[in-house]
Amino acid sequence: MANTPPYFNGVDTTSCGYFYQIMVNSSNWSFKNYIGGFSITPSRASFWSAKNTSFVTFSMYAINILSTLNSLDYTATLNTMTSQESIPIPTCQPFTNFSLAASPVFQQDSRSMRFVQYLKISNPMNQIRPSLGVQAPGYWNDQKVHLTSPFPSNWVVISYKAASLQNFNGQSGTINPTTLTQNTSPIPMNNPYNNVRTTVLGYNSKSISKTKLFAQSFVMNIANLNSALGFGNMAYDVIYYPVLGNRANATYHLFVNATGSSGAIPLNLFDQTYTNNPTFFGFATSFTLVNVGSPLSSIVQDNTVNSFILNINFVLDTIGLSPVSTTYSIPITNNMYYPVGIRSVTNNGINGASYKFSFDSLYPNVTFVDNVIVNYYSKMISNMPLSFTWTPTPPTFSGISIMIQNFQIFPVSSFTFVVRLDMFNTQFFGVQQINLYNTYLYGYHLVKGDINNGVFETVIDWSGEKFDQFIFPTSYFPKRDSGISMENQAINDMFQFIPYLPSQLTQFTVDDITSFKFEPNVVDVSNGTGSTTLIFNFANSKVTDRPSIYFPSYSHLPGIIDTNNVFTGYYNASTNMFNIPITIRQQLFSRSLNYNLTAAPSYISRDLISLKFGSDAFINVVSDYADEMGPNVEVLKQYPGNTVTVQATDDVTIGWDFILNDKPSGFSHGVAMISSNLDIIPINITFNSLNNTDGDEFYGNYSIRLPINGNCRSQVYHIDLVLYDYLGNEAASNYGNSITPRLNPFFKLWGDLTKEALTNITVNCAITPDIMAPAVTAFTLLTPTIDVGSNNRIFQATFTVTDDLSGISTNPKDYPVVVLSYLYGENTILTSTLSSTNGLSSTFTVNSQLPYGFAMKGNYLISIYGVVDKHKNLGGITSSEMKTAGMTYFGTTTFGVTTPVLETADRLTNVGGPIYIRGKKMGFDSDTVSCQINYGAGYQSIPMNLRYPSIFLINVAAVTGSSIKVQLTVNGIVSNELEIFKFVIPPPGPRPPPRPTLTPTSTSTISTTGTTSTTGTSTSTTSPTSTTEEPTSTSSTTSTTGTSTSTTSTSTSTTTSTTSTPSPSPDPKCPGVTPCSGNGICIAGECFCNNPWYGPDCNSKNHVIPPPPINPDQPTINNTIPSGSDALAYIVSIISVEELHEISANQEVIASFKLANWTMTNLTTETQFLYRYDVSVKESTNITVDVEYFQNETTIVFGNENLTMLPSTIKYSISMTPYQFQDKLTTLQLIMSATIETKADDTCSAKTIGGAANDLQWVKLNIDKQSLYGRFLRFAVIDNIVQPISNVLLDSEMSPIDTESSVQTFIGINIPQYENGIKLDPDFSVLIDNDSPTDSKCKSNNKLSAGAIAGITVGAAVFCALVIGAAFLIKSKLRARRFNIKLKKKLDSHK
Q: How does pLDDT run across 139-174, given as a tens digit for each residue?
């Protein structure tokens, strides 16, 4: 007979009560003959009936224990067997009052009228997790009690919202056990703002609401604040904090969560006096949140998927749309983000719409009555009782469903540990989840066995936050088990308990801290980042402990941890102290920073530490003028007005002009998000400070433009802005799907209905609208079975959608999504890509990696949502409808337990050091496991210092490259390759150069796609006056020389056009007849092009195409683009890496290597189209070329420069391993050729370069208006350092082709000596120009004059050099000509 130690579970003024458990070998034991007058009430709980074991546990409740007893003596009887039991108990001391010491009152973070006190309690109740109550009627609201330890005699934290601070001093609250309200102890109270008022209120903004439903955002000016701010009746949940200035003149951001209220919000000031400002803040009128039509449901038993298919449908009338979620009996809440679940949308104007929902989910094959709850914005809109009856009737179950056969905890580090559970599901529905220490362990954490009877393991990071003391093992059976109480309830026949506080943690409280201080404790961040070090120690510490500290930020609500503000320390052996280095960002508002010191059982707050260490507990930051405020809009104007009418044949442009203000940091970059009442998925237009032409980054003018053609539908467009300054401060008008305290950049406009309306533009389309939703007409599943426990979890499918009127939208943001739904509505959303279209019918493909362990029980449903036509009608198809239509409506999964999966790793730095790698199924002690690491020169073995199936530790050497790669082999099975990139603090974004003085009316225009600024100047004469209207096509030529020394730079998704006349400028001139051909702005000899213009003179265009075919033999891309009915006419462009030369100090070639015999590796993943080609020269040097296709606009970094990859860019990245030079003076030269050729008649060719022949910046080859444009950076990454290089024109040495229909050039990239490796970055684009080139060589003068034609960008960037071919079909006559032998071979290989 085994028993747990008894502990108090109740006490009154005369006696005590105890709780404990005993385990016996039969349920027939009885207990009697209590010595001392007490009684025992046993409550039996059997754990192992399904395992045929006789062990049972009894929960024993001993009551009426007098203080004279020191043991529980009774007789236990089983049949004729008796056992005299005596269990020692703690001394019973009937409760009178707590003995406590109370701290002063502290304000909790930046929350209005919420205060905290710390109580040190000493009392005879050694009750685990005692239940305590606090109150101060008339003074406290929403009071909470938090135990810093589950054990008695420790610190207790109480928090409350003060109803008022008037007459606060001298009052007392009370604390008492909740079962003994008559036995209380007083808590002294004090007013923390008991001072003479210096507060002066200034400007305040009007209300800014989140769709005028949930939250209000204000900005106000306060000077010398030393008062408590209270709002309304103090029941509002308000966060307020300073964001700009200093104490003498500060701007504050206030975030008010006041759902459903209307009228004005009073502002109350509390200090030694009290002032009420009843109408200080205006408040939005209350709106009806949502109207819901009567929800309907259908339940169909589907024996094929061995589950019910549950369909729920309803109509939701609402303003805006955030996730709709469903919840079942088991605690699974599933969010459905737009457009998931929506079958159609009906326009109700800018203030709302009607959304028709219809969605399916699987329900297990049981007979059960369940309640399905549908929520919107966390508010219940429907609670449907549903009856499920499976035929034939399945077996019934009683008792617990999940048995924990074994429970183990393994240490990892100070506050990280592994939990391993051996669990058995008696109903064979499979383990779904179990909650432990604020972490969920799911069925897919299976590492051995199967989902019904297996071993599950996960890693837990201890945060010190409060967690549920009861755990709930849950199966996929809809009724979950009762909770298991931690610490005091046996979980199995081994009499195991789940500890409330794992012994593997580093445990200490504030009382254990022996030394604590920050050096320095005053940090000036006025002009840059600051640093300090926390130096401390605590009792019973170990040198292996790794303490950490967390600094909460204003932008994160309570309970949300910003990992960027967590700092981890180490033991300093020379001082015998722990050191935690801390970095503090620039220009924080002067204050004492709030922090939490990570500890077990609970984190330790700054204020609690200050009670022991006084001023040493504070870290004070000072700033002359703080900036924690994002950019804001000063002026907003609609373009061309608030209402626009579009005729059927029109092409119009709408947009907004605005002035951005951000001082002292300066606006860095942002996104304009344009949505409408018919289309809530925004068009995202990115822009940055370089797009400003009037003013500067501190106060500048910007414009956003959106083209609309006549095939449109009337709707109201709306602009939101997400803006960042150079310090990373954010301002956002789209609050997203959660309420967060982010500053709204439009705050200066709000409160004035006329100005608020400026964010909307009404577009009236003359064409008769298409009001019919598009339809899904075909679906093919290419991967019917997927192992979701492997590294290859690719889901592949194709489907066709049709629309007979307006046609299917081909905007990538409108691509449909495929939704896979599992039991209880668990789902994953997969994006599709457009494969082909004829306008009215389009085919989409899906090629996506499923989440690890998704639908691991075996089946999932397939639905398609978000099918959009050009008139913004929304369509889709549920799995039930797909089944009815005869389409494949479900897929099947398996879950293997043998393949190791590497997932994440710790932050990697230059110095390497210990790195924890997390994953799944990475091997038990009994398995054969090895680890390999690749620093850049191939894989090598590396020992593991600690390993569990879910985490292991390796000690990484110094890292010279940008990343390392790690693989694991378990019992001969190789894992995926995990690439760990070195953490590098990103350099500050580029600030705009000094601008010419412009008139106040000039603007910068930003359009809807991408803009890339290009390097290049010429000696052509340019007009000092730029265009004064929207960009128009003008002819331009570029001379063969140039003087600019600038390098390529890139701006993201933007274009710029000037609308005013600058003063004369000494800056270098830009190419073009007019600067940048009138299609961009010239800055320091460099063209920043308006979208969609591109090229050195902004006279070419980009075009989006599907991914190209891949050549398995060499890194060559062949793109074919139709251009008319004659399919035999085409233009071929080839860019290739010809040779590698080693050159002596006398400029003689002493070694030459032809580049051939490439080896290709397919590295394409769900999110990346990537092929790698390798070739070796001189036996030891490897040249690697990566060919990557970008579907979406992407910004990458090379040599600390931001480079934008436009859609359809093909990037060739080249790197070289160490080369054995013949002597110390030789260098390398990588020779590349570029050729463009056609077989068409009546053509002209031209060659243009930028820079000098021995200092080449760019080259452009033309066949009529088709051009091949290459840019060459003047730097490379050599031995991980950005170093200058030179590029030279080799045409005088290489005899290139130069005819009317073919033009070729050779370029040499000069590479200095290096030791470890090089990375190069030329950039190539195949374009179609707006005008034919001048100074060209022509076969015939009978030329057509065509307008601008779309082209294709084939960019090559980062580590780069390449072989690429592209073919363009054009309408012309076919003529024969002879190619030289060398080119002919290349052309033949590409056709």
A: 888 888 877 766 655 788 899 989 888 888 888 888
Residues 6+ apart with CB under 8 A from 684: 671, 672, 673, 813, 1053
Using an 8 Å Cβ cutoff, are 898 and 449 in contact?
no
Give the C-alpha separation, 39 to 19, whole Å.
Answer: 12
Closest CA to 399 of 285, 482, 455: 482
Tokens (6 digits) for 521: 């404790």
Rounded Cα gap, residues 1368 and 1131, in angstroms = 5
Look at residue 951 in the predicted model and tell me its pLDDT: 97
More confident of the two residues 1007 and 964: 964
Instruction: Indicate the SS3 state at residue 1243.
Output: coil
- pLDDT (average), residues 963-985: 93
Q: pTM for the full model?
A: 0.70
**Structure tokens that stand for 427 in this block:** 């109903």
Please provide the size of the chain in residues: 1391
Write the burial class of residue 1253 (CB in 10 Å: 0-12 exposed, 13-18 middle, 19+ buried).
middle
User: What 8-state DSSP symbol labels residue 607?
Assistant: H
Strands (E), 5-128: 7-11, 16-24, 30-35, 39-46, 56-65, 71-78, 81-88, 99-102, 106-107, 114-122
Structure-derived torsion over alpha carbons of residues 387, 393, 395, 400, reported in degrees to the nearest 10: 0
964 token code pair: 């390392």
Domains and CATH numbers, the chain: 2-88 (2.60.40.10), 99-188 (2.60.40), 200-281 (2.60.40), 290-388 (2.60.40), 398-430+437-476+481-519+530-584+589-622 (no CATH), 632-765 (2.60.40.4070), 775-894 (2.60.40.3880), 901-981 (2.60.40.10), 1121-1145+1180-1336+1348-1369 (no CATH)
User: Does residue 1245 contact residue 1300 with C-beta atoms inside 8 Å?
Assistant: yes
Most confident of 762-776, 1072-1086, 1240-1254, 1356-1370: 762-776
* Cα R_g (the chain), whole angstroms: 36
- Which of 131-135, 393-397, 1055-1059, 1228-1232 is predicted most confidently? 1228-1232
> Residue 813 carries which side chain, given as an amino acid letter?
K
490 within 8 A of 4, measured Cβ to Cβ: yes
Query: How far apart are the C-alpha atoms of 1259 and 1245, rounded to whole Å?
Result: 14
The count of other CB atoms within 10 Å of the CB of residue 1001 is 10
Q: How far apart are CA 789 and CA 805, in angstroms?
A: 44
* Inter-residue contact 792 to 674 (CB < 8 Å): no
Give Cα separations from 410 to 183, 417, 901, 1216 (angstroms): 43, 6, 20, 44
For residue 1110, what is the DSSP state? B
Distance CA 14, CA 774 (A): 77
Shortest CA distance to 123 belongs to which of 96, 145, 103, 147?
Answer: 96
Q: Residue 920 in 3-state DSSP? A: strand
> At which residue do the structure tokens 């005008």 appear?
1331
Do 1229 and 1374 meet the contact criterion of CB atoms below 8 Å apart?
Answer: no
Determine the pLDDT at residue 323: 61
For residue 61, give the amino acid letter: Y
Q: How many CA atoms lie within 13 A of 501 on its CB side?
A: 19
Select the highest-mean-pLDDT range: 159-173, 326-340, 1172-1186: 159-173
Compute the distance between CA of residue 706 and CA of residue 699 in angstroms, rounded to an integer: 24
| Element of type H or E holding 882 | helix 879-884
